Structure formats: C-alpha cells, structure tokens
Amino acid sequence: GGGAAGGGAGGGGAASEPSEQVSSEQTIAATVTVDTSAGTAKAQLDAADVKKKVDAALQAAQKDQSAPVITVTMDSNAAKTVSLSVPSQALGELAGNAKAAFSVQCGLGKVTLNAKAIQAVTQQAGQNAFVLTIASVTGETKKNHPEYDISIQSAGKKITDLSGGTAVAAV
What we know:
Elements: E1 23-29, E2 32-35, E3 40-44, H1 47-64, E4 67-73, E5 81-87, H2 88-92, E6 101-106, E7 109-114, H3 115-125, E8 129-142, E9 145-154, E10 157-158, E11 167-170
Parallel strand pairs: 1-4, 3-5, 4-6
Antiparallel strand pairs: 2-3, 5-8, 6-7, 7-11, 8-9, 9-10
C-alpha cells in the first residue's frame, strides 16, 4: 500500500454534495464467542434479526434513494481467526438493490460484499447459511504487511465465484 496523498485544503466545501454515497445503514452487533487459547472468535446471526435489518435498510433506501447497507460488528478481541455464520435466505433480499452492501467489521479489519457478490454467495448457499472467515496468516508478511486469508464457505464447500461481484477487504 502507498501513503495517502494530500490534496490541499479544498476551497470552501459544497456540503450539499457529499463525495461518498449516502447509505441507509443498519448495524447488527453480533454475539461473539471468543476462544482465547485457540485464538478464534465465532458468531452466528439470527435469521429473524437479519431479515428485520434488511427490510429496514431497503425501506430507508427506497425512501431516500440511498444505498442499503448491513454492517455486522464483531468484538473479536485479539483473535487471529474470526468467523461469522450468516443465514443466506435472510440476507438474499438485500441483493435486490444494486447499491446494496454487506460488511463485517472485526478486530482484524473489515470485509464488504457488494450487491452482486451478496447475490452470488446467497444463491450458491441456497437454504444453508454461509460462513465468512477472516484469518491472519501466521508468519506471512509481504513488505512488513501482515497477510490475511478471507474465505466464504457453505455446507463445507468454498464459494469462490462472486459472479462479477466484489469483496473488498480493509485491514
């Protein structure tokens, strides 16, 4: 990664034109089980909770033409591997809005799936939940930057085809 390029102080902001896309964000604070000896943190989302948040985000987005975003926060402490089980059917509706996003924020960083990726993952998972895992790869560094393994699985099978969608990681 490079350094942040400074762009000057800007000339009198036009506050009515936000540079970022406006979102109708709904946050879910996941109940996390941390196993400190194993270095893992796991959470499982409840389908009813996810559906309620998805419905609220979609309604708000429709009302103000914003992006419906579901963000899951996980208090993972110092865990080196973080896993989140997501009920795919409850989340699937979110992909109906092209601006939608699903994010998982934990101690290792943040992973965000866009609408196409949400649709691809939830379709491949079908009736099953999918598990998003972020793991710090021990001892692996590139130019002093830690390496992470980010994967999505459902029913024991890795989901690697996002059908043109994107998964963005920020660590």
